[in-house]
Amino acid sequence: MYGGGDGAANANSLFGGGGFVPSQSTAVPESSGGGSGFSKASDDNSNFAINGVEVSTVRLVGRMLGKVERVTDVVFTLDDGTGKIDVNRWQNESSDSKEMADVNDGNYVIVNGGLKGLQGKRHVIAYSVRRVTNFNEITHHFLHCIQVHLDLTRPKPCLPSQINACTPTPGHANQAWPPNNQATTFSASGNTAGNDVSSLVMSVFHDPAIIEREDGITVPYIMDRLKLPEHIIKDVIKKQEDEGNIYNTIDDFHYRSAMNG
Amino acid sequence: MDASGLPAFANGEILKTMVGRRVRTVVQVQHNEGGVLVGQSTDGHQLTIRGATDVPVSHFMEVFGTAESDQSICAEVCTDFGNSFGEIWRPISCSCLVLNNRYMIPWTM
Questions:
Q1: Which of A70, A119, A199, B30 is deepest in the core (most CB within 10 A)?
Q2: Hey, what domains does chain B have and what are their CATH numbers?
Q3: ipTM here
Q4: Of A12 and A127, the one with more pLDDT
């Protein structure tokens, strides 16, 4: 059972690739070393696909190394134990500078940003860099990477036809919607459909625009985002609440993910 | 000895198979004297960490280093995780098993 051997070293590659059910997520939990899961999503080499899913925004957790403060930006390398990746954080406002002043070499940080490629090398253009204060976030992040990676790499199950009827609204900010060929892989099926609906709902909770909300979100908000019936969302909410993945905040109608930092 | 590879997640039991390799683990500090720290791994083993930074007793500490033996690590980087990390440290031990033995995905840097 403990005969890890080479498999143990390869375990780091477990974090290779990963992502939310792509139709709803904006930030894909990733590890720096996710080489096997990455591929170029377009000919212009500017975007990447992870396990066949185009990714624009990623979340990384690791140690900051080699921080260099320049006039208009700050650059550093993020090392999460599975690999290293260069990160660039532009400083356009005083809040950006203040944010970067709070983090230094050796600190564990959470980076949210866009994954870009230049001359075959990946780097991240960060829009958020914050220091880890609760180190359980590191474990949560790795487990999240595993879960999303498995979710993307296993055979896609089927969803009820009413979910297929849902279409994204381009007007939403921070949304990354899948190409049409992704949606057509879904069809109706039993429990696996429930797992995908759960993933959709939880991806709303983990949206970077939502995750910082102290009050959390409500069922009507999720209905508006996902265009799913109320009873389906309420079923998922109750299940996630029973499992401890979400909790009530200011009242019985507001929920927040337990993964929030 | 392969101390150049990426660090593998390890607990006390897995460390036995990692001698000579780079590892990463979390221990709870039990005592610390003269750069030699003794901590308890997530699965209850006593591990000796050489070259550890000064982390208070009862705090959790993440260690990146090279496994010198089945019970000691030569530390490269240590991070104080505070004293509330233990709320979920038991699942970490199980996670080590999951990571190192169940999922073997070809990986290249």
A1: A199
A2: 8-102 (2.40.50.140)
A3: 0.78
A4: A127
